[in-house]
Every structure is written in structure tokens, then in C-alpha cells.
Design brief:
alpha+beta; 4 helices; about 25% helix; globular; Trna Endonuclease, Chain: A, domain 1
């Protein structure tokens, strides 16, 4: 399957998109429960291939505190069973495709990686961008070669540690 075939495979594309939207809502609820102001933009689907580029700058989640500028958060979910950084099965951890990163005008400040199995969340900041590496891999689900940005596990923290750091950034949680 080529990249074009993957994008035009509506069943696979929309299935992956629905899983992504579900994980965005889950992460948004967890952040809301932690006391933050959260906006999960409405889930939308392209009607045709020609619209896909207009989604390049969409945010998965905006998170902040009252009276503060929000932070753009990218949510990535994985089918791995992990409870935290220590037992995440791979190092480095894929963040996003190079193509997606370069297409976004407003870059995500944070990446949340969610276990689709356990619900655990780990986080990293794009402040460590200079340390990221590029990895070329074969995506077995989509059957295409992709170049990803990846970060070492030691640059990730637990969801709880992330929430503490975020609360500090915003001057304390709500």
C-alpha cells in the first residue's frame, strides 16, 4: 500500500481517526479531572482527499488555567500495555511524523502517549526538540514507510509529574 492508498482507504483511515478522537477525549477528561481548563476541539472528518492539508494545524487538546494562554497538546495512543515510563516497551518513543511536525504552524508544546490497554499516560515536552531523533520505519498497519520524530524514554514523565509541572507553569492548578 502506498501513502496515497492509505489516505484513500476510508475504512482504515476513519477507524484510526475514531480511535485517535476517543483517546483525545480520554486524555482531555484526565486533564480536566486534574483541575485544568481543557478544550478538546470537535471531532471532524474530511469529506475528500483534497481537504486533508487543512487539518495540519489542528490541535488535539488545548490545556491551560483560567486567564492563561492555553498550551497545544498532541495525543498519541498506542496498543501497548504500560503503566508508566519505566515499562513502556520501546526506547526511543515515536512522537509524530516529520511531515506532520513540519506542516503544523503552531507546534505542540506537549506530547501525551496513552496506552489503549491500561489507560496510562506518559508525557514529554517539545522543549527537548533539539534532542529528538528521526527514525525511518515501516508502518505495518498502514503498510507505508514513514519518518518519525522520536524522543528517548528518559525525556518522558508520568502523567502525575506532567500535571505538577503544568500546574507550576500556570501558577498552580485550579
Amino acid at each position: 500500500m502506498t501513502t496515497k492508498e492509505w489516505i484513500e482507504n476510508d475504512e482504515l483511515f476513519f477507524g484510526e481517526l475514531e480511535t485517535g478522537h476517543k483517546m483525545q477525549r480520554y486524555a482531555g477528561r484526565r486533564l480536566l479531572d486534574a483541575g485544568f481548563v481543557v478544550q478538546v476541539p470537535p471531532s471532524t472528518k474530511r469529506k475528500s482527499r483534497s481537504e486533508i492539508d487543512s487539518y495540519a494545524d489542528e490541535a488535539d487538546i488545548w490545556v491551560g488555567a483560567w486567564g492563561q494562554a492555553p498550551t497545544k497538546v498532541e495525543v498519541k495512543s498506542r496498543k501497548y500495555d504500560f503503566q508508566g515510563v519505566a515499562d513502556y516497551p520501546y526506547d526511543p518513543i515515536f512522537l509524530t511524523t516529520v511531515q506532520s511536525w513540519e506542516a503544523a504552524t503552531t507546534k505542540p508544546a506537549v506530547f501525551l502517549i496513552v496506552s489503549q490497554v491500561s489507560g496510562a499516560i506518559i508525557a514529554t515536552s517539545s522543549v527537548h526538540r533539539a534532542e529528538w531523533m528521526q527514525t525511518r520505519t515501516f508502518d505495518t498497519k498502514r503498510q507505508i514507510r514513514v519518518t518519525n520524530h522520536a524522543a528517548l524514554k528518559n525525556r518522558f514523565v508520568s502523567f502525575e509529574a506532567f500535571c505538577i509541572a503544568l500546574a507550576t507553569k500556570f501558577g498552580g492548578s485550579e
